[in-house]
Specification:
The protein has ten helices and 13 strands. It is of the alpha/beta class. The protein has a single domain, classed as Aldolase class I (TIM Barrel, Alpha-Beta Barrel), CATH 3.20.20.70. An eight-stranded parallel beta barrel has the order 1-4-5-6-7-11-12-13, surrounded by six helices. Strands 8-9-10 form a three-stranded antiparallel sheet.
Length: 242
């Protein structure tokens, strides 16, 4: 069964969503990150994806205090991302309560370092953020484009033990027009042993069911939840009761 992972994106202390990764097209939501996390927990969610957008923009994490609060006041496991570039950054994230980290920019700027994390921290705790615009990797909160092919990028780390990849088709992010199903199908067929976390474009339960049927490991849901397109109670059918 596909895992449901709500996303909490934080910028300047507020929960926001970006449309197609554009910081000039942001929408601010009234809920605090911790209140949102608690509401997710109340509905049986076990993991949240905490995006430090301040950290992504400046190249080093900023919102450790929000990570610490969510980890301390809920039983949720937190996948923390945004600006992680150094051994110190990742160690600090775990110190403040992260269960997992997702890193993207460092996997471009220092491939050997990210590959070393898969070994030193363990492949169960490290996710590659491989987000693409027109099939090419984009980094630094998606504001910097590269000429790196998405599949070449994943393959480099897949051959070095990578287990988890979170991939977003940036054109789909925040527009509620459906995920990039073809992209996920190709990733799964090309890298059969990898666990794919799909992110971007999810608009309804049918999208989640289709991703589940394709064999996607997890889906990160954001705007559809905040806009009421998907209700938390409707997700309970996907939650494995312990």
């Amino acid at each position: 069964m596909i895992q449901i992972i709500p996303s909490i994106a934080v910028l300047e202390g507020k929960v926001i969503r970006l449309q197609q990764g554009d910081f000039s097209r942001e929408k601010v939501y009234d809920e605090s990150p911790v209140d949102l996390a608690r509401s997710f927990e109340d509905h049986g969610i076990e993991v949240v994806h905490l995006v430090d957008l301040d950290g992504a923009r400046r190249g080093s994490p900023k919102n450790y205090h929000i990570l610490e609060t969510i980890a301390g006041y809920t039983s949720l496991k937190v996948d923390f991302t945004g600006g992680i570039h150094t051994d110190g950054d990742i160690s600090k994230a775990y110190e403040y309560g992260a269960s997992y980290i997702t890193a993207a920019s460092v996997a471009v700027s220092n491939k050997k370092q990210f590959a070393s994390w898969i070994i030193s921290f363990g492949r169960e705790k490290i996710t590659l953020g491989a987000d693409a615009r027109d099939g090419k990797i984009a980094v630094r909160g998606w504001v910097k484009d590269t000429d790196i092919d998405l599949f070449d990028h994943i393959d480099y780390f897949y051959s070095r033990g990578l287990k988890y990849v979170k991939s977003t088709d940036i054109s789909k992010e925040g527009v509620l027009e459906g995920p990039s199903f073809a992209m996920y199908e190709k990733i799964i067929s090309t890298f059969p042993d990898i666990c794919v976390l799909a992110s971007g474009g999810v608009r309804n339960l049918d999208d989640i069911k289709r991703l589940n049927d394709m064999g996607v490991f997890a889906v990160i849901v954001g705007k559809a939840l905040y806009e009421g397109k998907i209700k938390l109670s409707e997700l309970e059918q996907f939650l494995v009761k312990s």
